[in-house]
Amino acid sequence: ATRPGRTPRETATHCPYCALQCGMLLREEAGRVTVLPRQFPTNRGGLCQKGWTAAELLDHPDRLTTPLVRDPASGELRPATWSTAMARIVSGLRAVQAGHGRDAVAVFGGGGLTNEKAYALGRFARVALGTRHIDYNGRFCMSSAAAAGLRAFGVDRGLPFPLADLGRADTLLLVGANPAETMPPLVRWLTEQRQRGGRLIVVDPRATATARQADLHLQPLPGTDLAVANALLHIALTEGWVDRAYVAERTDGFDAVRRTVAGWWPARAEQLSGVPVADLEATARALGTAERAIILTARGAEQHAKGVDTVTAFVNLALALGLPGRPGSGYGCLTGQGNGQGGREHGQKADQLPGYRRIDDPAARTHVAEVWGVPPDTLPGPGVPAYQLLDALGTPGGPRALLVFGSNPVVSAPRAARIERRLRDLDLLVVADLLLSETAALADVVLPAAQWAEEDGTMTNLEGRVLRRRALRPPPPGVRTDLAILADLTARLRPTPDPRRTDEPADGETADGETADPRRVFAELRRASAGGVADYAGITWERIDAADGVFWPCPTVDGPDSPRLFADRFPTPDGRARFHPVEHRPAAEEVSSDYPLHFTTGRVLAQYQSGTQTRRVAALRRAAPDAFVELHPDLAARLGVADGEPVRVVSRRGELRAPARLSPTIRPDTVFAPFHWGGPARANSVTNDAVDPISGMPEFKICAVRVEKA
Ligand code: SF4
User: Fold this and answer.
1) What is the mean pLDDT of residues 420-428?
2) Is 183 near ligand 1, meaning CB less than 6 Å away?
3) Atom 6, ligand 1: which residue's CA is nearest?
4) If we measure between CA atoms, which residue out of 295, 274, 297, 298 comes closest to residue 219?
5) φ and ψ at residue 38, rounded to 5 degrees
6) What domains does the chain contain, in order, with CATH numbers?
């Protein structure tokens, strides 16, 4: 625990970055903060280089320490007081809503925000602003798996079992996942799994660091994973590996799926995907004959305009083999962002209220409105998914003001140049961030926000395990927590502000009762989530402190939490899981003579998300200084491109420029670029903005391009 006033000061907390939420110890001595390893069930003392270097940003010279307000005369961002900045925001929001209605203001959140912030942001949008327009960057992360899980199992929890189960699986199938680069400490579970005699099979168009460790690597054409899954189920049916008793007792809808996959004989899947029939058969056998088998998907399978159906195809396979609910078996999704799981449970999604409730459910509206102390009919209805929201900004009838917390859509949104134009067209753009991101650089007002080591809160990791982030020290002078910003804005937006309100509220409570205390926000979140799918009612900070986190659902303080789901029933009305027949369909944009190559995006080990933070960390910058375009040597030879030579990747929407990196690990018909950089190397200048009709997930993982020498 934090011991204020003592030297050295130590805090047991978690990494600020990805969904593994590795445990770490922060020590402050003589003003210098260092990261030390800490035993925690997900990382068991391991950290990747991003975690080891996370403290560097606490005292980074680029850090924002004062609000910035754009000067109308010069057009420059200038330092301002909090009073000036907040007054500018409030007057701007009021003017926009007076002229264009409440929905003319929108809020955009992030999957890195704590549960308390995600909750407070949803309440702020629906109550203080009264707008239906709120969504977040998690829509770009694992929304397809969330939607697929919800419709099959009645619940969306990334892993419905503890991570340790990976080490016990006899067969582990990873689809579009590269944990060796995205979550290195997780690889120890994979190593243990193979040391126990288990088989690791990876499906990925690139021979990634993870795929190179696998016993079998299937390298399909991007966008054909769904056909691969249907072919695997076809083989399992033919060979008699389907668990018919499980299907009969615990599921509905298998007959329709059986009819669909009957047409996916392996040779047809090979023709479409390029995966040899022998490899499909070996994979189906490894899954179908294993005592314990786990199927995991990640962004490679999910970030498609058919992402929900692709994940559903693998969920169908898992259900047909009787895996979900069996020890050491099941289907799961590897969440990406630090609070990708919790971030989508507490109401910062366009269609949701806290507790993973639907915003159009009358009972949910009544329950949450009561917690919020407002009449249910004053709550707005559902908004629109993230890309649709961003693409409507500044257009006739679309929102004219946007508040962004913990996100950088100028780099992370698909078809990013268009989104950048939309942001420039706004009457008011407000960004709260710790650094001047590419999005913050466009803002009218920038608010300096506290970092992870400067505030308390909870996160929910990829296992559905709720954890405590603990503050090591308070924010520096001039910097506020997001909760303090929201509390202050809420107070100022009241029709008749309390005259006792101060301009400079502390992090506890504003003079007129708006709380910025994360512990009190969490207490309210628990009440709001009670009875919902993601029920936190029984989770207290003390209970988290006494154990290695608490798994939701956890409805009572004295009752058990839920490390494993689905043992006896699924949380559907009748307790049964649902099959859904799904068919392959082409990518939204196919290759042509002008754009003859497939383009796909992803991550590198030393960078994270839009790179706002990690590009500023010296060791990470040394490890991964620049973007690159990965090309197969055969393709490079055809194009006359040498290793390191600058190239342009051109799509129908834009281009990126970066040096070529030749690698035999990628298919010759596919090129890859990481998405961590802005400017000319921005991968999302090229990506397609077609979205999944169910989840709203953009098709980041495939579009058509040509490559030219720059
Ligand atoms: Fe942080 Fe993720 Fe690396 Fe762990 S794996 S240290 S949580 S970035």
Assistant:
1) 97
2) yes
3) 51
4) 274
5) -145, 140
6) 143-337 (3.40.228.10), 597-709 (2.40.40.20)
